[in-house]
Model the fold of this input.
Amino acid sequence: MTEHEEYESQLVTLLRCPQCGGTLTPVQAEANMYSEARCVECGAPYRCIEGIWRMLTTEQREQYRSFLQGYPALRQREGWEREEAYYLALPDVPPGDPTAFVWSIRRRSLSVLDQLLAKEANESVDRWALDLGAGNGWLARHLSRRGYRVIALDLTLGGLDSLSGARLYIEHDNTWLGRVQASMSRLPLANSAFSLCTISAALHYADTEQTLREVYRVLAPDGLLVISDSPVYGSAQAGAAMAAEREARIAALLPGGSPRLPGGQNFLVETELLEQMQHIGFGTQVIPIERTLGSLKRSLLRAIKPGRREEARFPVIVGRKRRA
Done:
């Protein structure tokens, strides 16, 4: 058995039925890789197609139908679907690229993440990481390079700008990334299985509290949650105003408006998020990524224009699962 086959076999042992929570047993293999597994409790079958475990229930597929159809279309119209070289270079993009500002934020967040990981215990060779809302898998690739066995989880498939596109990193780097199509708010994964969970540019789309509860469940004691690249506000009013502005822009691109997940509001309120995390059982830390000049600019703008809407911040928010 190759190393990649071994990791894929271990992934199956971590999967759980999203309907009843039962463990899965492989029932079919192709070319020494599992292609189907079945729940030992309720008998529900789940398939691995093109390297991606499809772990949505029939009910969830219907629930997320509009998002699954609308979000990839929106990303394409916003110019996110690019050539292979673009994805292989991430998080670096050429100066002047339309996405340069977004990736400048993500590079600073990534630097903070690297500092956090440098402080983590490295004695275990079996560290598993979970990258939620993984998109094309650029962050999952980064974690893999730092010695983690990584599961990239997302809802959307199709094209390089989705979970399907992570095959590019697997083939280019000759590495292994587990890929799972599933809901962040109902993780089909075993309890206490992961030492690290990252959520980059994704938590604001989801049911925040339910997702945090699921992350807490699958993290091992003392496990680390790192939330980054989501727009964070001091008040719900400011976030709602931003969301309304964004909705108006999207309406011009996509008939029917912005695709949304149940429970998602497209922004986070810092105090609410921290209260949710602490109530669930996380120890919390907020790490700003703004440069001093950026903070000064915000203060000056608020002083000059008191009625100006609060701008989004993008701090790195860290949660540590407390030991019992």
